[in-house]
Design goal:
The complex is a heterodimer.
Chain A lengths: L1 H9 E12 L2 E12 L3 E5 L6 H8 L7 E6 L2 E2 L4 H7 E4 L11 H11 L5 H11 L15 H13 L5 E5 L7 H16 L3 E5 L3 H5 L3 E6 L2 E6 L1 H8 L2 E6 L6 H5 L7 E5 L2 E6 L2 H8 L9 E5 L3 H12 L1
Parallel strand pairs in A: 3-8, 3-9, 6-7, 7-8
Antiparallel strand pairs in A: 1-2, 1-4, 4-5, 9-10, 11-13, 11-14, 12-13
Chain B lengths: L4 H17 L1 H21 L7 E7 L4 H12 L3 E7 L2 H9 L5 E5 L3 H7 L4 E7 L3 H22 L5 H4 L6 E7 L6 H23 L1 H8 L1 H7 L4 H29 L9 H25 L3 H17 L12 H9 L1 H15 L3 H25 L6
The chains are: A alpha/beta, B alpha/beta.
Chain lengths: ~300, ~375
Amino acid sequence: MTQARTRSAELAIDVKGLTKIFGRKVAVDHIDIAVPQGEVWGFLGPNGSGKTTTIRMLCGLLNVDDGHGTCLGLDIRSQSEAIKRQVGYMTQRFSFWEDLSIRENLEFVARLYQLADRKTKVDRTLDRLGLVKRQKQLAGELSGGWKQRMALAACMLHDPRLLLLDEPTAGVDPKARRDFWEQIHALSEEGLTVLVSTHYMDEAERCDRIAYILNGKLVTQGTVPEVIAQSGLVTFVLEGAQVRHLLGDLENKPGVDYVGFFGAALHVSGQDRAALEQTIAPYRHRQGIRVAETPPNLEDVFIHLQEEAK
Amino acid sequence: MNFSLARIYAILVKEFLQMRRDRLTLGMILGVPLMQLFLFGFAINFNPKALPTAVSVDDPGTFARSVVAALRNSSYFDVRIETNSPQKARQMLQQGQVLFVVEIPVNFTRDIVRGARPDLLVEADATDPAASGFALSAINGLVANALRDDLNGPLTVRAQGPPPFNTVTHLLYNPESNTQYSIIPGLLAVILTMTMVLMTCLALTRERERGTYENLLAMPATPVEIMIGKIAPNIAIGAVQSTIILLMARYVFAVPMIGSLALLALALTIYIIANLAVGYTFSTLAENQLQAMQMTMFFLLPAILLSGFAFPFAGMPLWAQDIGEVLPATHFLRIVRGILLKDSGAPEIWSDLWPLLLFTLAAGSLALARFRRTLD
């Protein structure tokens, strides 16, 4: 009993068998997640794999069809109102009031959470996220990067202990994405737990751990090196002027699980090293093609997982 | 510039596809005209019959009986009560339970026999002149005809010439049958119902369409708090609107205002909240703004046609009256005409005030029951 309590106290998110069914479609299929406090977790998976649904169940926006667990030590089924007060949730689509200014949006949020010394809290948050100069601008007039920054400010306002960010950087330029992640890391250093869903591999690599979800099922999780190692994947990279025509040649050859371009280079991956070496061998001596083995990157792994599931 | 039938066709196909997807809209496009047809066709009667009437009889004679029988048999009057107390009959008129009081005075029979031409007193509620006009013009002939059969033997002479009695008609509350006096207070009811329902029918629908609904749900606001917060500002707008209409009624249309304005303000507040609650309920039901607007139209149509505003309530068939009784506009219409024209006080309007309160409560509860706290 005491052991269970300390365990859930250390874990910001601790859910088992989390399931959501829409009609006949199982959107989330018995997912177990245990996120220790203070960590930044990346939540990855293709579109429609169930990331948003999982996040919405965690913060009480969707009823749980099966499974149980806690969020910040509170039961996700029965204490969702209490969870809402301590969680900052940033929706995938910008969901603040576009006909209100940045400041008015933040003041509204602060009032809903009944924050004491509202004005100083809002001022501090505006300052922290560099929004002071723009505070009178209407949210609807902001560009994507500023909107996302404002949304982060709004869900930080009530000093949540857990941040659930649903593709916060989709459609945001590289500089703004970097700034955003600096904020995330700064917050995490203060002890905040963050679960962030993303499609960007560089962002995934900035997470302490990642969880990959596919068709509603949690397929793999761990640190980035762990996830790569678990895949058992061997990857060769083919470079040079001639590689562009090789995609079709290599597809479905023995040992080749997946062929794809990364930039101008062709990655050929498979789990059977011997067969893969054999398939690759003829290309090693071709004019204008350089072949080398490379550690597989996250994208290789994820695409491989996706291909495997087909 | 060129012109392509193929491109027009492309757009046409797309429009039909979208139209087919939006079943509710399609249903309403077909349903609304059908509803209008029914309402106009069956419910509305420009020559209202079976109007509720109280008869006060103070004469035991045969002629008095004949008059009552004639009224009972006529299609214009529906004698709800026969009493020997003129006070009671007048009270029913004041409360709006009857539109007419026919008073047969003491010694009516004796005076006819004597040829003294007794008075037959007819009091009509003229707050809605359209309702009482036809019936009033019919009553004289009706009674004269009825008595003609009784005037036999030595009394045959009374059947000749002018009727042996004298009909005295009192148009109460609106002696000049000024139509504006009934229309303008009615407009207060109709305009308020239109704007108030429209104001709130988009309350949640707009949040849902703009994606802010999810955010609202993720924050700690309860459904009751959201509902009250969204409805309350519109009460102020309704108050401003009411003030403008009442000022216009007073100074432009010279509508008499003899009752208590404080009581009217109270009834107005309840009426405004009732309509806001309806609009808010629509906003919990509608999936998009178009649907919300269509629901509003669906509500406004009977509110205008069946409330007694456009056509006399008493002249409608019973099923239409039953629908009308559910609508807040019907009750408020009676209240506002009652207070302004008849000096009705709290006891008189209570019979129309509690249905308003009940309606508000029901609409509010439905809205809360329909409010989804999750995105399921």
